[in-house]
């Protein structure tokens, strides 16, 4: 902060440091339970900003969750199983949310590595989980 303050001052700007609260986000511990199979820990991640809740609903695979993938799927009251790739996380989540999904599980496509998933946007109030395959 001091560096930024000093840099602006060197250009002739008047500066002032003002403290403020920056709320952190704790994703807690995530798990996915499918019938008798439970996946916990390192392979399951919660999207930052998603709703902290438990959802029990049928699971429906919607591929990449592009608009045409979702339009033919009955997602009302269901959890959308989404493959990662091609379009943004925002678009995927919004497409299934608009179709009535109550939750999202997103997974890496075969051969993909990494567990860096994005975050939920304002208004995307849905339970979001991601899993490495």
UniProtKB/TrEMBL annotation:
Transmembrane segments: none annotated. SUPFAM superfamilies: PA domain (SSF52025). Residues 55-116 form the PA domain. Pfam families: PA. Coiled coil: none annotated. This is PA domain-containing protein. It comes from Pontibacillus halophilus JSM 076056 = DSM 19796.
């Amino acid at each position: 902060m001091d560096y930024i303050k000093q840099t602006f001052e060197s250009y002739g700007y008047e500066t002032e440091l003002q403290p403020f609260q920056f709320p952190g986000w704790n994703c807690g511990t995530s798990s996915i339970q499918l019938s008798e199979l439970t996946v916990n820990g390192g392979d399951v991640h919660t999207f930052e900003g998603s709703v902290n809740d438990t959802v029990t609903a049928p699971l429906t695979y919607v591929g990449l969750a592009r608009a045409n993938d979702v339009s033919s799927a009955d997602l009302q009251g269901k959890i959308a199983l989404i493959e990662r790739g091609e379009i943004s996380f925002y678009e995927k989540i919004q497409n299934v949310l608009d179709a009535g999904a109550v939750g999202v599980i997103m997974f890496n496509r075969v051969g993909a590595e990494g567990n860096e998933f994005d975050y939920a946007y304002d208004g995307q109030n849905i339970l979001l989980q991601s899993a490495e395959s």
